[in-house]
Structure formats: structure tokens, C-alpha cells
Amino acid sequence: MTETPVVINGHFRKQDVTGVQRYAREVVRGFRQKAYPHRYVEPPASIASNTLRQLWMQTVMPLKIRGDELLWSPTNIGPVFNENQVITLHDISDQLYPQWFEDRYTRWRSLILPPLLKRVKGIITVSEYSKRTINEQFPQTKGKVQVIYNGVRTDHFYPREQEETDALRKGFNLQKPFILTVGSIDPRKNIDGILEAWNRLPADITEEVELVIAGGSIHTFSFEVDRDIAESVRFLGYVSDDVLPGLYSAAELFVYPSLFEGFGLPVLEAMACGTPVVTSNTSALKELAQGYALTVNPRKPEEIAGAIDHMIGSEELCEDLAHRGQQYAQGFQWNAAADKTYEYLVQKYRE
């Protein structure tokens, strides 16, 4: 491939790893493996405040990029005044559901997104659903949005041996079989609905099985869990990438009835680990998981509870979904996403 001066907006490298940060890290890993030319530009390590890093991005970053270089901003935001830029916009949940976010954050995003999306040379998103919602919300983006699916690291997310899962159970003091949900504790992840569903389940399930919720909080969201929390519910807090495959593998079932996803990476990770999945029949999750998971209306706790009950009671269904889901997940590879992303960046650089 002809050398192309690609500069990567490295703002994400100082953030905790959640979905969009994992996306950026994995795609850049693919760039390195193929020796695709690139370099980073990022705020100095001395700038600890997120607000100050955002200010640095908007004011100083454009000065660090030569006129013959293309900037790629992989995590939903980039400098408005850099037109020679491609941005990855994973979703626009803050525009569609501002009530889930802090008011200051949504006001800032509403101010910055329209001019940013108008000026950039191209927009990458991660599902057809996200492309449709971006085009509908921002008509000026029609013809500028390219869909490139995420991947899953099947060399990392794969079924782990019992020795490893036993050690993990001991480390987290998980003595009973458990059902897992993963995601930052924010309103999109529907923890409220999961807890209501859990409280609807028969006592013979909640006495024998635990609900394990893994994920930290995200400061941009305005949300508090307000459902009764049963004694069989465990909050693990933030869990590192090193631990996640073992946690998926140890779970009887992965439940992810998110209200809104631009893609839904945890669903693929769980499938790759051989864990059967219950997820939503809405947003990009329908596009991603239909036919390979048991899907429910995420706004109906009774459906979530019914799906959990059905799965626990059907070993045959769990084994079928686990087998087919694991095979399906193999089709989503980060190296392929990296190749397609770099090809798109080259295309936009040459335009």
C-alpha cells in the first residue's frame, strides 16, 4: 500500500478502556501489524483534566498536524477546525437520548457535532443502524458515512479452561453459578431493567444463581439505579480486559438488554467465549445478534425475566446458541476492520 501520512488523534490513550477505546486500540494494533504508516498526536501527559484535554484537542491539536497529513479521530470527537479529517462516530445516543447524559455534556456535543460532521472528509461508523440514525439526525452527512463493523479478538476472547475460571471465581468470591452482564453503569445499559427482571424471577432461581454486574461508572451519564437489589446481585465494578474472557467463560448466561447500542461489542465477546446470550431486539443489537442470541424487548422487564427463565431451564437451547454464537463471532476480526479502515483513510486522503 502506498505510504499515506495518517495521524491518529490519541486522546483516547489516556482514558479507561471501554467500548470506543477498545475499538481504537484494536484497529491501531492492526495498523501496526501490517506496518501501515501512522503517528499519534495527543495531549501532554501533564494535562490530567478531561475538560482541559478536550480544550487542547480543539485549539492546539490542529497546529500539530501538517497540511499534507490526514487526521483520524477514532472515538466520536475531533477538532472542529481540521477539515482534512476522518472521524469514527460510533453512535449519536447523546443526540437521540439527551436525558441519559449530563446537561453540560449534551449541550457541548450539540454545539460541536454539526460543524464537525459538516467539515470532515469522511465518517466511519460501526453498523447500518448507526449510519441510518446519523444520516437522519444530520442530513449533511448523507454520502459521507462508511460502515465498517467492529471485530473481536478471538485470540483473547475464547472459552477458558476450568482451572482459570475456578481461580477467577475464588478471586471474586463467586461461589454459586452466575449470570453475567457487562458494561459501564449508565442508563443505556439498562441495569434498572435487568434488576427489575431479576426481582421477577422465581425464588428457586435467585436462591441458586447470582446476577453479576461488571462495569464501572461513566461520569458523563446522569443515572442512579432505583430498583430493589436482591441479595443475589453482585456489583464487581470495573473489570480489566485480562479478566473478562474468564468471566464470560465462567458465566452460565450473558444478559445484555441494552436500550441503545451503536454496535454491542460485549455480545460478540461473550459469544466468542462460548457463552449463550440474551440481548435486545432493538438498535444495532438486532442487526448484530438476531438468530444467534435470544432477543427481547429491553423495555419490558417481564420479557427479560422470561428469557432468563427459559434459558436456565433449557440446556439444549443454551448449548445450541453457545455453539452457533461462537462460530458466528469468528467472522468479526479486528485485522479485517483495520484493513478496511486504513483503505478508507487512504481513499479520503487522496480525494
Automatic annotation (TrEMBL):
A GO BP annotation: lipopolysaccharide biosynthetic process
Keywords for this protein: Transferase
Glycosyl transferase family domain: residues covered: 169-327
Residues annotated as domain Glycosyltransferase subfamily 4-like N-terminal: 86-155
Top-level taxon of origin: Bacteria
GO molecular function, one term: glycosyltransferase activity
Pfam families recorded: Glyco_transf_4, Glycos_transf_1
Signal peptide residue numbers: none
Keyword Transferase in annotation: yes
Keyword Transferase set for record: yes
InterPro entries recorded: Glyco_trans_1, Glyco_trans_4-like_N
Protein name per the record: Glycosyltransferase involved in cell wall bisynthesis
Annotated source species: Fodinibius sediminis
